[in-house]
Structures are given as structure tokens and as C-alpha cells.
């Protein structure tokens, strides 16, 4: 794993490219810059103590694959020749002077800058107790792993993406896991009843207790942690994991006066912000999706592709970002790949195979396909893109949907 560099002895006053943020987008940008401009100087500044990691591994492989370590998901960004300044926060950005200021009052000049600051876990008012965990980075993994052993009672609050994945992971290492969420079923904001009902059966068969209609009021810390709901019975646990969503880290951009939209930093087709020589990628970028219009996306494929595109443009190879990001997950023995707006506030058309163990779900706004989810169906993302493109152009009658992608194929 990468270690923080000695700032006073190695940091230069100026770099051709400065990247603020230490995730996948930063890694991809550094690699793209090296390919396009091998002699360019690159500095990555990150407020965490580890170099860029393959972040899905934090909630998947590290729990589900025996023997997997943080080293196994380290992206090896130092191989790009970039310098990594870790455990350091950028406190100010001045586009006019092309400088950033760090938390130890160093001022660094850049030729071009990439903001790839990602998102942070949404927090609430809780006691200052090490047994209450928000889950986002490698330090969170180390800490949670140190707290959990066979039979540890872990209560997870949240009913979304991270909560569902970490519940599966903790169950796999022998924890006594319960999940508490306000909706009727886990992940019902994404999946229709046909899938949420199946998932309920699967999670409970693995020993995970699912508790719907739970709205957290407060947490009390004593010998045990006690979750107090707005109504109903309190819940005791040894460890509490709060999976309440994420908030994009846009403070630096806002304070620098960059144009914002939809909670993110507005970028053009090359991912340049409203400030000259300042780019944004990954979770914080509000970009023009070719199939869905202007949006902001917090998924790995978006971080990878936008980081690469931004890096190439910064290094002189103007690269347009015209991409509709996919995302995926594995939930015990089931899995899915998805594209676009997969939310049940849209009308959902379901196409199942005969065995009823694989499906293709189409998310419709009127006659327009806004998202496609392939449940236990692999290798069909390109077909899903074709469906959404044809629908956008008005060339896809809804009566033809069932024949476009074969479930389970």
C-alpha cells in the first residue's frame, strides 16, 4: 500500500497536473496523463491515508473472498509516476492564480487541475463512540473488521446499495446481522416486488434479520449500543453500521466559485468546469449523459471513464465524455448489471425466463426507456444501450421490449 510522502523534502512548488482526490477517478486520470504526456509532472492530493483502491472491493471481495487484503485492491497508482500526497486536505482552490492550498498551509501551483473528490458518507448526530461506523474507505474497513468476529451483533441502518452489500459481507464472516430501514423491503427503491420478495427470502435464509418500517430517532451508547426508533421497540447491538447514503464533496468547488448544478460541479463535454484549466470527474461531476441528459452519477464505471477522459484532455488530447454509466452488484448468489435510472418511481416492465430466476427489467417514463436492469443476466449491457438509444429516438415500440434482451443470456 502507498504511504504518505514526506512533504517538506519532496513536494515541488508547481506541477503540470494536480489531482485532488484519491479514488478510482484520480488513478484513471493519472494513467491517462502518463499515456498522453509521459514527461508531465502529476501530483495527487488525497485526504485519506491510502492510495487509490478498487473501492467495490471494500464491500465485496474483502468480506466475501477468503484471504483478500487491502493490498489486493490497491490500484498501484504510483506506477504512473505520479506523486501521492496522502492524509492531506486541500483547503482552498484559487482558479485565478492556478493554486491550491493544503491543510498545512502549503501553496501549490498547477497547470491543469482535476477535482475528483468523490463523496462522503451521510452523517447524523450520534454519540462519539468507536462502535458506530460509517463505511466509505480503507480506514473504515480496517476499523469495522477489528470490531467484528463470529457472533458479533451488528445492526445496519439503511436500506440501499451499501447497506445491502455490507450486510451480505458481514454475514459471510459470521456476524449476527440485522438491517433496519424505513421502507417495506430492502432495496425497494430499485427493485419491484418480484425481486425484493426473493431477496427477503435469501437474506433471511442466510441469517440476516430484515426489519422494515424502522426510522432511527437516536443511538444510545452504553455497555451495548441501543438504536431508538421513532416508534416501536429499541434494538441492541455490539456494533452499528450507518449506511445512509452519500454526499458529494463539493465544498472546495463551491468556495472557488465554480458553477454548480444538481448538487455537483457542472462540466462541459470535456469535463472542464466553468473555470479555465479546472476539470471535474467521478461522483461530483454533473455531465451531459448522451441517453438521459444532464445528471450526476455515483458509480464506479462513471469514475473510471470520466477520470480517463479528463486526464487525456488535461494532457492535450481533447476527449469528449459521452457515456451512460453502468453499475452492478452481487447479493449472495444473485447479481445484476444495470444502466440508467433504475428506480421504482418509474413504471417497471418485467421480462422473466421460464425458470423465473433471471429477468430483464425496463424502467419507463411514459413510452421512454430510462433504465434497464439485467437480473442474473450477463453480457447484455451493449444491448441495453441499444434499447435506450432506440427508445430515445422514438424507434422502439414498447410491444417489442420483451424480444430485445433474453433473460439469463
Automatic annotation (TrEMBL):
- Gene Ontology terms describing biological process: mitochondrial respiratory chain complex assembly; programmed cell death
InterPro entries per record: FAD-oxidoreductase/Apoptosis (IPR050446), FAD/NAD-bd_sf (IPR036188), FAD/NAD-binding_dom (IPR023753), FAD/NAD-linked_Rdtase_dimer_sf (IPR016156)
Q: Where in the numbering of this chain does the FAD/NAD(P)-binding domain appear? A: 15-307
The record's Gene3D superfamilies line, in alphabetical order, gives: 3.30.390.30, FAD/NAD(P)-binding domain
Q: Which organism is it from?
A: Corynebacterium marinum DSM 44953
Pfam families per UniProt:
Pyr_redox_2
- Tell me the domain of life: Bacteria
Instruction: Fetch the PANTHER family from UniProt.
Output: APOPTOSIS-INDUCING FACTOR 1, APOPTOSIS-INDUCING FACTOR 1, MITOCHONDRIAL
Name of protein: FAD-dependent pyridine nucleotide-disulfide oxidoreductase
Q: Can you supply one Gene Ontology CC term for this chain's record? A: cytoplasm
Q: Which GO terms describe its molecular function?
A: FAD binding; NAD(P)H oxidase H2O2-forming activity
Q: Which UniProt keywords apply?
A: FAD, Flavoprotein, Oxidoreductase
